[in-house]
Amino acid sequence: MSSSGRYAVITGASRGLGREIALELARRGISTLLVSSTEAVHRVKEEVLSLYPIDCQSFIVDLTDETAVREWAEDITANYPVFMLVNNVGTGGSRRMEDADMDYLLRILHLNVLCTTILTKTFLANLRENAPSHILNVGSMAGFTPTAYKTVYPASKSFVHAFTRSLREELKGTGVTVTLAAPGAMATNAEVSARIEKQGFFGRATLKSTAEIARKYVDGTLRGRRQIILNPLSYLLTRILPERWRVPMLSRIVKREL
Questions:
Q1: Is the peptide bond before 146 cis (omega within 30 degrees of 0)?
Q2: What gap in Å lies between CA 144 and CA 65, rounded to an integer?
Q3: Which domains are assigned to the chain?
Q4: Each residue of 63-96: pLDDT tens digit?
Q5: In what order do the strands lie in the sheet with 31-36?
Q6: Which of 31, 39, 189, 257 could lock onto 94 through a cystine, CB 3.0 to 4.6 A?
Q7: What is the reported pLDDT for 204?
Q8: Measuring CA to CA, which residue among 188, 176, 162, 2 is closest to residue 88?
């Protein structure tokens, strides 16, 4: 599949799922614009260009800085035709609320909520102009269930879920599809892998490779799917178990990470 001179924007593209989505899109002949808060994004660009004959540009932007995010997005949308926006950047962790400092909490909210909102708003006119086009918002299984020791993370992903569904309905008939991805456990880096191991059997049983997830997310997004769930065990628990049982059970699992 070729993007015919149009570009896909991927946030959080310096590692983990963002890097794998960049490689998957490049494999399909789609040019990409990679953005991250770290210099590692330039290495991903070089990796992509060494493997595939596409255009790939990389940018370092502090994605927790609302002004910087808005200015970068306005510059990109003025200079590139964008047909896909992948709101992948996000962060979380496991801490007791009383132990979490304010910077930790605000970082989660800035990356998971504000960055996604600002980029979607800024790129929307560009996406409509280059339709058929697509938005992929990466949520989380945590967005379906409140969980203790995750501070504001489940609430931030619940926002992503509601925002995605609302926007999809609003954009019906415009040629812009909006897809929610709700991954479970992913070994995106050493720190996350260590936390998953501490969850015991449940964490390991729901673990997926980022390369596999990226491939299925790109497939589903290009097909305009409403929602992509790759962790049926976790999702089944959110559908079957009443919240009064589900929340304590998942909270006990997460508590092992502390």
A1: no
A2: 27
A3: 7-255 (3.40.50.720)
A4: 999 999 999 999 999 999 999 999 999 999 999 9
A5: 56-60, 31-36, 7-11, 82-87, 133-138, 176-181, 227-228
A6: 257
A7: 54
A8: 188
Amino acid in the structure at residue 222: L
**What would the mean pLDDT of 28-48 be, rounded to a whole number?**
98
Structure tokens at 125: 């006119």
* Cα separation of the two ends of the chain: 44
The model's confidence at residue 245, banded by pLDDT at 50, 70 and 90, is: confident
Instruction: Report CA Rg, the chain.
Output: 18
CA dist., res. 133 & res. 179, Å (int): 11
In the 8-state DSSP scheme, what is residue 114?
Answer: I
Q: Among all chains, which residue has been given the structure tokens 């020791």?
A: 149
Q: Specify the pTM.
A: 0.89
**Helix, strand or coil, per DSSP, at residue 43:** helix
Please state, in angstroms and rounded to a whole number, the distance separating the CA atoms of residues 88 and 137. Answer: 6
The whole-angstrom separation of Cα 14 and Cα 63 is 13
